[in-house]
Amino acid sequence: MYTLYAFVSGLVFGIGLILSEMFSPVKVLGFLDIAGKWDPSLLLVMGGAVAVGLVAFAVARKRTTTLLGTPMRLPPPGGIDARLVAGSVAFGIGWGLVGFCPGPALVALGAGHVKAFIFVIAMFAGMGLYEFAERRRTQKPAAAATAHAHAHAHAHQAARPAHDHPVGKHRARKGR
């Protein structure tokens, strides 16, 4: 049932992108061109999305489970940090350069736009690069903690007298 709801939600989202023309880079870049031929129509689309989002989050904050019964997982308040700001800036620059963001790019890909194909390939490459960097970033502290714990254990064993440790007793007997 969960998959059906996810499919219907995605379908409604895709239809909304098509109706608002947000999948069209020309439309998006026209909206972003505030110094030239500005097209303010996407401002209404974004305003509607923000209004729906505000209501949805207000309702969600009061719940512990979703409508489908899964745990409600909302981001904690005040979670804005340098990584989030840097990612937002990168997203905005990419959106401004090519006129695509991930959801509309997939819709445009389905509509046969060649530029969307190139964007989606680049998007997946960027996602893969991020995953690779995150694994490396999280493995370094884990590896350092493991090495520290291992070194601590060896230092602790070395500080014990030989007769207190079974390995030490074995070594002591061997040396006799």
What topology emerges from the helices and strands here?
Elements: H1 2-20, H2 25-32, H3 41-61, H4 82-98, H5 102-110, H6 114-159, H7 166-175
Overview of the molecule:
With 176 residues, this protein is mostly helical. The chain has a domain at 2-79. The protein contains 7 helices and no strands. Helix 2 packs across helix 4 and helix 5 (102-110) packs across helix 6 (114-159).
A few lines on this structure:
This protein has 176 residues and is mainly α.
**Main sheet specs:** none
Assembly state: single chain
Q: Give the DSSP E fraction (strand runs of 2 or more residues).
A: under 5%
Number of strands: 0
Assign an overall shape. globular
Number of contiguous helices: 7
Are there runs of 5+ residues with pLDDT below 50, and where?
Answer: 168-176
Computed CA radius of gyration, to the nearest angstrom: 27 Å
Percent of residues in helices: over 70%
Order of helices and strands: HHHHHHH
Question: What is the distance, rounded to the nearest whole angstrom, between the alpha carbons of the first and last residues?
Answer: 72 Å
Helix-and-strand structural type: mainly alpha
Based on the model shown, name its key terms.
7 helices; 0% strand
